[in-house]
């Protein structure tokens, strides 16, 4: 077996936006495993010690208008708009440090929750032990995943990394751990996949505005292309994860996001089990869970989960 192609964190591979006209840094055949290295989402090269953010070193290429530090894009040879990009997450190994913040959301949110100011938690990550510990002595289990896995919109120009989109991006879904396969509708020829925003641990909703934000020392993704998913067109991200099948919905409010997630889940259940839509909904009321993916990225995310083995 030859060497795994690697995309590291260099000035020519780092960017803070999605843009279909960004030249690919690597072109691979379908079925290729690519090893990515990513930075902390804020482009930081060192932990937050509670000082002025201006004093923390950032990677070359950072500009004030940059969003998440993304690595890529990687072009998949022969991929066409309208097909499905299959992203198999083989491994995600976090860096040795990360940061989580509290009280950094809008003032109205802070006031409703009685927050008086921001808090900074600096985490030391022990990859071998599978834990992270902050400066206050709290210890949590790590469950690393990439918050951003996505492709640029078909429209020209630079697009923000903050809101998730129907073709991926800042999904922040904590179920996309190693062992998952994410299916994304392809918006542009070549796919042009970029990744970043690794999280060592995160709760559903990402309610504080951040997770344990960290870099990824290694994220191995196997990229493939298919015409559809289970014989049907794909309109929103879907994943097969250790937790079960996951359908992601995105909307301007939680109702819209939940409706989109359930619409995709009913299609999926119909394809998996040969169910008419009304029967799929009757069964979904028994076995499907709706979870808030995130509430902090300009739009809202909800994911519907059909747990593994729940419906046989």
TrEMBL record:
Signal peptide boundaries: none
Gene3D superfamilies the record matches: Acetamidase/Formamidase-like domains
Superkingdom field: Bacteria
GO molecular function, one term: hydrolase activity, acting on carbon-nitrogen (but not peptide) bonds, in linear amides
InterPro entries per record: FmdA_AmdA (IPR004304)
Pfam families for the chain: FmdA_AmdA
Protein known as: Acetamidase/formamidase
Record organism: Geodermatophilus obscurus
């Amino acid at each position: 077996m030859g060497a795994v192609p690697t995309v590291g964190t260099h000035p020519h591979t780092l960017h803070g936006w999605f843009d279909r006209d960004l030249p690919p840094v690597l072109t691979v055949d379908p079925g290729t495993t690519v090893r990515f290295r990513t930075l902390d989402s804020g482009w930081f090269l060192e932990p937050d010690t509670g000082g002025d953010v201006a004093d923390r070193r950032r990677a070359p290429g950072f500009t004030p208008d940059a969003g998440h530090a993304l690595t890529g894009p990687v072009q998949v040879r022969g991929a066409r708009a309208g097909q499905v990009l299959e992203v198999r997450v083989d491994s995600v190994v976090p860096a040795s440090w990360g940061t989580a913040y509290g009280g950094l959301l809008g003032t109205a949110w802070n006031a409703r929750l009685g927050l008086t100011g921001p808090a900074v938690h600096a985490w030391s990550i022990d990859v071998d032990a599978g834990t992270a510990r902050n400066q206050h002595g709290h210890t949590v289990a790590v469950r690393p995943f990439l918050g951003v896995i996505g492709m640029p919109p078909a429209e020209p120009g630079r697009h923000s990394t903050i809101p998730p989109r129907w073709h991926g991006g800042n999904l922040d879904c904590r179920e996309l751990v190693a062992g998952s396969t994410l299916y994304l509708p392809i918006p542009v020829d070549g796919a042009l996949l970029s990744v970043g925003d690794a999280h060592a641990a995160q709760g559903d909703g990402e309610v504080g505005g951040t997770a344990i934000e960290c870099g990824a020392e290694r994220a191995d993704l196997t990229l493939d292309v298919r015409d559809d998913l289970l014989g049907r067109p794909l309109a929103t991200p879907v994943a097969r994860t250790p937790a079960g099948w996951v359908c992601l919905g995105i909307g301007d409010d939680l109702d819209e996001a939940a409706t989109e997630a359930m619409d995709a889940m009913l299609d999926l259940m119909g394809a998996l089990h040969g169910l008419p839509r009304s029967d799929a909904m009757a069964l979904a009321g028994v076995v499907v869970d709706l979870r808030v993916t995130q509430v902090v990225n300009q739009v809202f995310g909800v994911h519907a989960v059909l747990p593994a083995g729940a419906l046989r």
